[in-house]
Amino acid sequence: MCIERIEPDFGPQVGGTCIYICGTGLYDAPIKKVKFCTADESGNREVQAEWDRTKKALKVIVPPFQWLYGDEELPEEQKQASQVQASKPIKLSLSLNDQEWIKALTYQYHDSCVVRLAYVNNDLTASLSAEEREKMWQQEEPEDAGYPEGTTEEEIKKKEDEAQKKANEETEEVNTVAKRRGTRVTIHGSGFMKNQLLMARLTANGAVHKFVKPVYKNSKKLCIETPDMGTEVEMGNHQLVVEVTVNGQQYSSNGIFFMYN
Q1: 238 phi, psi to nearest 5 deg
Q2: Can you tell me the distance from the alpha carbon of 131 to that of 137, in angstroms, rounded to the nearest whole number?
Q3: What distance lies between CA 211 and its chain's CA centroid?
Q4: Number of alpha carbons in the 13 Å side-chain half-sphere of residue 82
Q5: What is the rounded distance in angstroms from the CA atom of residue 5 to the CA atom of residue 216?
Q6: Which of the two residues, 77 and 90, has the higher pLDDT score?
Q7: Is the pLDDT of residue 91 over 70?
Q8: 201: β partners
Q9: Which of 99, 149, 151, 260 could make an S-S bridge to 240, C-beta 3.0–4.6 Å?
Q10: What do you get for the CA distance between the two ends of the chain, in Å?
Q11: What distance in Å separates the CA atoms of residue 243 and residue 95, rounded to the nearest whole number?
């Protein structure tokens, strides 16, 4: 028996990700169990698996990370210590007879979130050609490297205050000024990943969804172009809530929105 891959091999700490353990020699045994174990083996959890006939693989729902330490709420000190393990690969093993356990690669708990949105300022690229603007739109951007050595606390505070002021102004704009389809929007957050599963979901009135493949800038920034929300969204101003998934299954749940007309 050889385990070749886990699809997908990452998901949020709240659990609920449906993963497939794929390989050779797997079969639909009467007993199918998968064990999730932290790197230091301080926490573990056994989960019942199912057999997927189409994929010829074991299908299992990932438990919440905290369940690896039991069903009860952890004391704050132990909870903080457990988060160190949450950032490390979780060891998986499987059993088809409830006796022998076979190593089955690793799984990574990974959270992403949307913090705020901002409309793209087209004035900054007005002097560029259409081709140059599109190239810049598609380009990745380096993450903030911090402040140069020797920067004083006063200078740092000034720059942080200026950045916060700009962020507040951008948030005020997206919350009050409605935009139409074609408007480009920047998604600020954390934990974004550049992969085929990355997707943004725009929701109007809690029921109308549109899905957009974002332009990946870096792990803290994505960009999208607002789609036409269709005839289901009546004329007038509506809040469009933007959530992101990095594993193709679970979306963030931060409720950050911009106004759409």
Answers
A1: -140, 150
A2: 10
A3: 15
A4: 20
A5: 25
A6: 90
A7: yes
A8: 211, 243
A9: 260
A10: 56
A11: 37
Residues pairing with 187 in the sheet: 117, 222
Pick from 37, 56, 57, 60: which is nearest to 48 by CA?
A: 60
* Residue in the structure block whose two tokens are 């380096």: 142
The pair of structure tokens assigned to 258 is: 């911009």
Which sign, positive or negative, has the C-alpha torsion 177, 179, 183, 187?
positive
Q: Over 90: is that where the pLDDT of 24 sits?
A: yes
Contacts of 156 (CB under 8 A, 6+ apart): 147
| Residues facing residue 106 across a β-bridge | 91
- Report residue 220 as tokens: 């803290």
Residue 259, exposed/middle/buried by CB under 10 A (0-12, 13-18, 19+)? middle
Q: Which domains does the chain have, with CATH numbers?
A: 2-109 (2.60.40.10), 113-144+170-260 (2.60.40.10)
Name the residue among 109, 145, 110, 113 with its Cα closest to residue 221.
Answer: 113
Question: pLDDT by residue (tens digit) across 38-78?
Answer: 999 999 999 999 999 999 999 999 999 999 998 777 777 77
